Task: structure prediction
Amino acid sequence: MSGAYSRTSGLIQRRTATVTNSTNESTNDEKEEKSSPDEDEDLDSKETRLTLMEEVLLLGLKDREGYTSFWNDCISSGLRGCILIELSLRGRIELEKAGMRRRSLTNRKVICKNDQPTGDVLLDEALRHIKETQPPETVQSWIEYLSGETWNPLKLRYQLRNVRERLAKNLVEKGVCTTEKQNFLLFDMTTHPLTDNVVKQRLIKRVQESVLNRWTNDAHRMDRRMLSLIYLAHSSDVLENAFAPLSDDDYEVAMKRVRELLDLDFDAESMKEGTNELMWAVISAMSK
Result:
Protein backbone atom coordinates (compact mmCIF):
# COMPACT_ATOMS: atom_id res chain seq x y z
CA MET A 1 0.00 0.00 0.00
CA SER A 2 1.33 3.35 -0.94
CA GLY A 3 2.08 5.65 1.96
CA ALA A 4 2.41 8.74 -0.23
CA TYR A 5 -0.42 11.09 -1.12
CA SER A 6 -0.75 13.20 -4.23
CA ARG A 7 -2.63 16.51 -4.01
CA THR A 8 -4.44 17.97 -6.97
CA SER A 9 -3.17 21.36 -8.02
CA GLY A 10 -4.97 24.51 -6.99
CA LEU A 11 -6.81 25.51 -3.83
CA ILE A 12 -9.88 23.41 -3.15
CA GLN A 13 -12.32 25.15 -0.85
CA ARG A 14 -14.15 23.09 1.74
CA ARG A 15 -17.81 22.62 0.98
CA THR A 16 -20.20 23.93 3.61
CA ALA A 17 -23.35 21.91 3.82
CA THR A 18 -25.82 21.56 6.63
CA VAL A 19 -26.31 17.97 7.59
CA THR A 20 -28.97 16.96 10.06
CA ASN A 21 -28.02 14.44 12.70
CA SER A 22 -30.16 11.36 12.68
CA THR A 23 -30.66 9.00 15.57
CA ASN A 24 -28.87 5.70 15.97
CA GLU A 25 -30.74 2.64 14.82
CA SER A 26 -30.29 -0.67 16.58
CA THR A 27 -29.43 -3.67 14.46
CA ASN A 28 -31.94 -6.47 13.82
CA ASP A 29 -29.30 -9.10 14.37
CA GLU A 30 -28.55 -9.38 18.09
CA LYS A 31 -25.35 -11.25 17.32
CA GLU A 32 -23.83 -8.33 15.48
CA GLU A 33 -21.39 -6.16 17.37
CA LYS A 34 -22.83 -2.89 18.66
CA SER A 35 -21.55 0.39 17.26
CA SER A 36 -20.29 2.99 19.68
CA PRO A 37 -23.15 5.05 21.17
CA ASP A 38 -21.92 8.35 19.79
CA GLU A 39 -21.80 7.23 16.18
CA ASP A 40 -24.04 9.32 13.96
CA GLU A 41 -26.31 7.26 11.75
CA ASP A 42 -25.76 8.87 8.39
CA LEU A 43 -28.64 7.26 6.56
CA ASP A 44 -32.36 7.67 7.00
CA SER A 45 -33.64 4.10 6.85
CA LYS A 46 -32.59 0.47 6.71
CA GLU A 47 -33.13 0.46 2.96
CA THR A 48 -30.34 3.00 2.49
CA ARG A 49 -27.87 1.79 5.11
CA LEU A 50 -24.61 0.84 3.44
CA THR A 51 -22.12 -1.92 4.13
CA LEU A 52 -18.39 -1.21 4.35
CA MET A 53 -17.98 -2.57 0.82
CA GLU A 54 -20.65 -0.25 -0.56
CA GLU A 55 -19.17 2.75 1.24
CA VAL A 56 -15.68 2.14 -0.15
CA LEU A 57 -17.06 1.64 -3.66
CA LEU A 58 -19.21 4.77 -3.36
CA LEU A 59 -16.15 6.82 -2.41
CA GLY A 60 -14.39 5.43 -5.49
CA LEU A 61 -17.21 5.91 -8.00
CA LYS A 62 -17.08 9.02 -10.17
CA ASP A 63 -20.36 10.87 -9.58
CA ARG A 64 -21.33 11.53 -13.21
CA GLU A 65 -19.39 8.82 -15.02
CA GLY A 66 -20.49 6.04 -12.65
CA TYR A 67 -17.29 3.96 -12.63
CA THR A 68 -14.06 3.76 -10.64
CA SER A 69 -10.74 5.00 -11.95
CA PHE A 70 -9.21 2.72 -14.59
CA TRP A 71 -5.84 3.26 -12.87
CA ASN A 72 -7.01 2.02 -9.49
CA ASP A 73 -5.59 -1.48 -9.02
CA CYS A 74 -6.03 -1.47 -5.22
CA ILE A 75 -9.79 -1.43 -4.80
CA SER A 76 -10.29 -5.10 -5.70
CA SER A 77 -8.34 -6.44 -2.72
CA GLY A 78 -9.64 -3.57 -0.58
CA LEU A 79 -13.23 -4.67 -1.12
CA ARG A 80 -12.32 -8.23 -0.05
CA GLY A 81 -10.84 -6.80 3.13
CA CYS A 82 -14.13 -4.96 3.66
CA ILE A 83 -16.02 -8.25 3.35
CA LEU A 84 -13.90 -9.90 6.05
CA ILE A 85 -14.27 -6.99 8.47
CA GLU A 86 -18.01 -6.72 7.78
CA LEU A 87 -18.40 -10.41 8.62
CA SER A 88 -16.40 -9.88 11.80
CA LEU A 89 -18.42 -6.83 12.88
CA ARG A 90 -21.55 -8.91 12.37
CA GLY A 91 -20.20 -11.63 14.64
CA ARG A 92 -19.80 -14.29 11.93
CA ILE A 93 -16.02 -14.84 11.90
CA GLU A 94 -13.09 -14.30 14.26
CA LEU A 95 -9.38 -15.04 14.63
CA GLU A 96 -8.27 -18.20 16.36
CA LYS A 97 -6.83 -17.74 19.84
CA ALA A 98 -3.33 -16.29 20.01
CA GLY A 99 -2.01 -19.06 22.25
CA MET A 100 0.73 -18.96 24.85
CA ARG A 101 3.37 -17.86 22.35
CA ARG A 102 1.18 -14.97 21.21
CA ARG A 103 1.39 -15.49 17.45
CA SER A 104 1.21 -12.42 15.25
CA LEU A 105 -2.00 -11.36 13.55
CA THR A 106 -0.75 -12.46 10.14
CA ASN A 107 -0.13 -16.04 11.33
CA ARG A 108 -3.49 -16.67 12.98
CA LYS A 109 -6.32 -18.40 11.13
CA VAL A 110 -9.85 -17.17 10.41
CA ILE A 111 -12.53 -19.20 12.17
CA CYS A 112 -16.27 -19.33 11.46
CA LYS A 113 -17.98 -18.20 14.66
CA ASN A 114 -21.60 -18.17 13.50
CA ASP A 115 -22.80 -19.52 10.15
CA GLN A 116 -26.21 -17.82 10.27
CA PRO A 117 -26.80 -16.03 6.92
CA THR A 118 -26.45 -12.25 6.95
CA GLY A 119 -28.92 -11.61 4.13
CA ASP A 120 -26.18 -10.13 1.95
CA VAL A 121 -25.26 -12.38 -0.98
CA LEU A 122 -21.56 -11.45 -1.08
CA LEU A 123 -21.12 -11.81 2.67
CA ASP A 124 -22.91 -15.14 2.74
CA GLU A 125 -20.86 -16.48 -0.17
CA ALA A 126 -17.62 -15.58 1.59
CA LEU A 127 -18.90 -16.95 4.90
CA ARG A 128 -19.74 -20.26 3.27
CA HIS A 129 -16.22 -20.57 1.84
CA ILE A 130 -14.65 -19.82 5.22
CA LYS A 131 -16.90 -22.29 7.02
CA GLU A 132 -16.21 -25.13 4.58
CA THR A 133 -12.42 -24.67 4.39
CA GLN A 134 -10.34 -27.04 6.50
CA PRO A 135 -7.77 -26.46 7.76
CA PRO A 136 -8.54 -22.75 8.28
CA GLU A 137 -6.59 -20.06 6.42
CA THR A 138 -5.09 -16.70 7.41
CA VAL A 139 -6.59 -13.28 6.64
CA GLN A 140 -3.95 -12.62 3.97
CA SER A 141 -4.77 -15.93 2.28
CA TRP A 142 -8.48 -15.16 2.27
CA ILE A 143 -7.93 -11.75 0.68
CA GLU A 144 -5.95 -13.47 -2.07
CA TYR A 145 -8.48 -16.28 -2.50
CA LEU A 146 -11.55 -14.04 -2.59
CA SER A 147 -9.91 -11.71 -5.12
CA GLY A 148 -8.59 -14.56 -7.27
CA GLU A 149 -4.99 -13.38 -6.81
CA THR A 150 -3.61 -16.77 -5.82
CA TRP A 151 -1.14 -19.08 -7.52
CA ASN A 152 -2.94 -22.14 -6.17
CA PRO A 153 -5.39 -23.34 -8.86
CA LEU A 154 -7.29 -25.38 -6.25
CA LYS A 155 -8.21 -22.13 -4.48
CA LEU A 156 -9.60 -20.32 -7.52
CA ARG A 157 -13.08 -21.62 -6.71
CA TYR A 158 -13.11 -19.23 -3.74
CA GLN A 159 -12.92 -16.16 -5.96
CA LEU A 160 -15.84 -13.77 -5.58
CA ARG A 161 -16.63 -12.63 -9.11
CA ASN A 162 -18.02 -9.32 -10.36
CA VAL A 163 -17.84 -7.81 -6.88
CA ARG A 164 -17.84 -4.18 -8.00
CA GLU A 165 -20.76 -4.76 -10.35
CA ARG A 166 -22.75 -6.57 -7.67
CA LEU A 167 -22.07 -3.85 -5.11
CA ALA A 168 -23.04 -1.19 -7.65
CA LYS A 169 -26.33 -2.99 -8.21
CA ASN A 170 -26.88 -2.91 -4.45
CA LEU A 171 -26.40 0.86 -4.57
CA VAL A 172 -28.92 1.03 -7.41
CA GLU A 173 -31.43 -0.97 -5.38
CA LYS A 174 -30.91 1.40 -2.44
CA GLY A 175 -31.61 4.41 -4.66
CA VAL A 176 -28.07 5.81 -4.49
CA CYS A 177 -27.06 5.15 -8.10
CA THR A 178 -28.66 4.36 -11.43
CA THR A 179 -27.62 2.11 -14.33
CA GLU A 180 -26.55 3.34 -17.74
CA LYS A 181 -24.65 2.10 -20.79
CA GLN A 182 -21.67 4.04 -22.10
CA ASN A 183 -19.75 3.47 -25.29
CA PHE A 184 -15.94 3.48 -25.08
CA LEU A 185 -15.04 3.22 -28.78
CA LEU A 186 -14.34 -0.52 -28.86
CA PHE A 187 -16.79 -1.69 -26.22
CA ASP A 188 -19.88 -0.82 -24.23
CA MET A 189 -19.68 -0.63 -20.46
CA THR A 190 -22.38 -0.62 -17.81
CA THR A 191 -21.95 2.38 -15.52
CA HIS A 192 -23.66 3.52 -12.34
CA PRO A 193 -23.85 7.32 -12.06
CA LEU A 194 -24.85 8.86 -8.75
CA THR A 195 -28.52 9.79 -8.33
CA ASP A 196 -28.66 10.52 -4.58
CA ASN A 197 -25.86 12.95 -3.82
CA VAL A 198 -27.08 13.41 -0.22
CA VAL A 199 -26.02 9.89 0.79
CA LYS A 200 -22.51 10.32 -0.60
CA GLN A 201 -22.08 13.80 0.88
CA ARG A 202 -23.12 12.52 4.30
CA LEU A 203 -20.60 9.69 3.99
CA ILE A 204 -17.84 12.11 3.01
CA LYS A 205 -18.75 14.44 5.87
CA ARG A 206 -18.60 11.58 8.38
CA VAL A 207 -15.15 10.57 7.13
CA GLN A 208 -13.90 14.15 7.29
CA GLU A 209 -15.28 14.78 10.78
CA SER A 210 -13.80 11.55 12.12
CA VAL A 211 -10.28 12.94 11.60
CA LEU A 212 -11.10 16.60 12.26
CA ASN A 213 -13.88 17.64 14.66
CA ARG A 214 -14.29 14.24 16.31
CA TRP A 215 -10.66 13.17 16.40
CA THR A 216 -9.83 11.44 19.70
CA ASN A 217 -6.11 10.67 19.21
CA ASP A 218 -6.95 7.11 20.30
CA ALA A 219 -7.96 4.48 17.76
CA HIS A 220 -9.85 2.52 20.41
CA ARG A 221 -12.15 5.43 21.13
CA MET A 222 -13.16 5.67 17.49
CA ASP A 223 -16.13 3.80 16.11
CA ARG A 224 -14.88 0.47 14.73
CA ARG A 225 -16.82 0.77 11.49
CA MET A 226 -15.49 4.26 10.78
CA LEU A 227 -11.96 3.26 11.76
CA SER A 228 -12.16 0.30 9.37
CA LEU A 229 -13.56 2.54 6.63
CA ILE A 230 -10.64 4.96 6.92
CA TYR A 231 -8.04 2.20 6.72
CA LEU A 232 -9.76 0.32 3.89
CA ALA A 233 -10.57 3.45 1.90
CA HIS A 234 -6.88 4.32 2.13
CA SER A 235 -5.73 0.87 1.04
CA SER A 236 -8.30 0.99 -1.79
CA ASP A 237 -6.87 4.35 -2.91
CA VAL A 238 -10.20 6.21 -2.55
CA LEU A 239 -9.71 8.09 0.74
CA GLU A 240 -8.31 11.07 -1.16
CA ASN A 241 -11.76 11.54 -2.72
CA ALA A 242 -13.26 12.22 0.71
CA PHE A 243 -10.58 14.76 1.63
CA ALA A 244 -10.36 16.62 -1.69
CA PRO A 245 -13.13 19.16 -0.82
CA LEU A 246 -11.30 20.28 2.36
CA SER A 247 -9.39 23.54 2.65
CA ASP A 248 -5.60 23.22 2.49
CA ASP A 249 -5.21 23.54 6.26
CA ASP A 250 -7.88 20.95 7.07
CA TYR A 251 -6.52 18.66 4.40
CA GLU A 252 -3.05 18.69 5.97
CA VAL A 253 -4.50 18.00 9.44
CA ALA A 254 -6.63 15.13 8.10
CA MET A 255 -3.73 13.51 6.28
CA LYS A 256 -1.43 13.90 9.29
CA ARG A 257 -3.92 12.05 11.46
CA VAL A 258 -4.42 9.32 8.89
CA ARG A 259 -0.65 8.82 8.83
CA GLU A 260 -0.74 8.51 12.62
CA LEU A 261 -3.24 5.67 12.24
CA LEU A 262 -1.09 4.00 9.61
CA ASP A 263 1.96 4.17 11.88
CA LEU A 264 0.29 2.27 14.74
CA ASP A 265 1.60 -1.13 15.83
CA PHE A 266 -1.35 -3.25 14.73
CA ASP A 267 -0.33 -6.31 16.76
CA ALA A 268 -0.09 -4.16 19.89
CA GLU A 269 -3.46 -2.55 19.16
CA SER A 270 -5.08 -5.97 18.79
CA MET A 271 -3.98 -6.94 22.30
CA LYS A 272 -5.88 -4.12 23.98
CA GLU A 273 -9.03 -4.93 25.91
CA GLY A 274 -12.30 -5.03 23.99
CA THR A 275 -10.69 -4.86 20.56
CA ASN A 276 -11.69 -6.69 17.39
CA GLU A 277 -8.66 -8.80 16.52
CA LEU A 278 -9.81 -9.77 13.04
CA MET A 279 -10.36 -6.13 12.14
CA TRP A 280 -6.72 -5.38 13.05
CA ALA A 281 -5.56 -8.50 11.20
CA VAL A 282 -7.22 -7.26 8.00
CA ILE A 283 -5.80 -3.77 8.52
CA SER A 284 -2.34 -5.27 9.05
CA ALA A 285 -2.62 -7.39 5.89
CA MET A 286 -3.85 -4.46 3.80
CA SER A 287 -1.13 -2.12 5.09
CA LYS A 288 1.82 -4.18 3.86
